[in-house]
Amino acid sequence: MRFEEQRVSGCYVVSLDLAEDERGFFARAFSTQEFATAGLVAKIAQITLARSEQAGTTRGIHWQAEPHQEAKLVRCISGSVFEVCVDVRPGSDTWGLWTGVELTADNRLAFYVPPGCGNAYQALEDGSEVLYSTSAHYAPGAERGARWDDPAFSIDWPIKRGIVLSTKDLSWPDIDKR
Closest by alpha carbon to 87, among 8, 167, 32? Predict the structure, then answer.
């Protein structure tokens, strides 16, 4: 695996090293040893699968408060999504910055979101599926969020019309209104 740090401190695009032959390929998608060597959280507590039926479906911005903060490793296994990491960690040198990458079933990239950062994604195709591993179990009382279109972050979402959002995601306040 290769780890490419993004502009949000601690956020990485993770690429696979494919061993290919006439049958196809084989690749290690996760290794506690390689993640720990790269300085990343190397624990998986939960794996979640999410499907977005319609392109433009936007989920997030979500994170969990201490002591339930979680690292996430996100991979698109069907279709394509625009995956975003937003730095909402108090005192962070990159607070308020976001970074994003297109994850597709074909490019096989993964996106590592460090603990304390917000996670969001937008489906770019109908029927897109995302598989993500988290380092901590979901704790409903620790769930936090910000609006997907919060002006403090100014995320440049690829799809700007026909956005599909949950009632919960529509109700999150802007980060500066807390």
Answer: 8
